Amino acid sequence: MKDLKRVDLWVGIGLIALSIAVWLMTASLPVPERGIGPGQYPRVISVMMFGLGAIQIGTSLLGGLPERSSDRTYLTEIGRALLLAVISLVYVRLLSLIGFPLLTPFFLVGIIRLFGYKKWKTNILVSVIGTAVIFVLFNVVFMVFLPVGRLF
Predict the structure, then answer these.
(1) Burial readout 41-67 (b: 16 or more C-beta within 10 A, e: otherwise)
(2) Which of 3, 48, 52, 73 is the most exposed place for a label (fewest CB within 10 A)?
(3) Distances, alpha carbon 3 to alpha carbons 7, 60, 126, in Å
(4) What's the pLDDT tens digit per position in 55-97?
C-alpha cells in the first residue's frame, strides 16, 4: 500500500509538470477574436490536468487508496466497465445519425442508472439540463458544432 501511495505521488507530480509544459508551449499560439482557437483548447486541458494532478497528490499524502474489497465485487466492477464501453461504442456509432441533443440524454440516463443512482426524476433532469448546457456551451461559446443528426 505504501508503494502505491508513492507511485500516486509521482504520477501527480508528473501530471503537474506536464500541464505546466503544455501551458508554456501553447503560449505562442494565435488567439482568435471569437471562439476557441488552437491555443485555448490545450490550455483548458492543461488546467484540468494540473487540477487532477493536485488531487492525486493530495489523496496520496492524506489518505491513499481504500482497501480492496472481495473478488466478487471486483468482477462486478469490471462487468460495469465493460458494459459502459459497449454502451459508449453504440452511442458513438449512433451519434451522427440521431444527433447529440437527442441521443445524449438517453445515454446519460442509462450511464447514471448503470452506476447505481435510483432516483428517476433527478436522473432525467440532470441528463436533460446537462445535455442542454453542453450543447449551448460548445455551439455558442466554443463554436465547436456538435452533430445534430441526419434524421431531421
Answers:
(1) ebbeebeebbeebeebbeebeeeeeee
(2) 3
(3) 6, 10, 39
(4) 999 988 887 555 665 566 677 888 889 999 999 999 999 999 9
For residues 60 and 14, the answer to whether their CB atoms sit within 8 Å is no
User: Using the 8-state DSSP alphabet, how is residue 64 labeled?
Assistant: -
Contact 68, 37 (CB under 8 A): no
Q: How far apart are CA 63 and CA 57, in angstroms?
A: 10
Instruction: Compute, in degrees rounded to 10, the torsion defined by CA atoms 88, 93, 94, 96.
Output: 120
Reported as a single tens digit per residue, the pLDDT across 126-151 is 999 999 999 999 888 888 888 988 87
Q: Which H or E run includes 13?
A: helix 2-25
Phi, psi of 94 (to 5 degrees): -85, -10
Query: What distance, in Å, lies between the first and last C-alpha atoms of the chain?
Result: 54
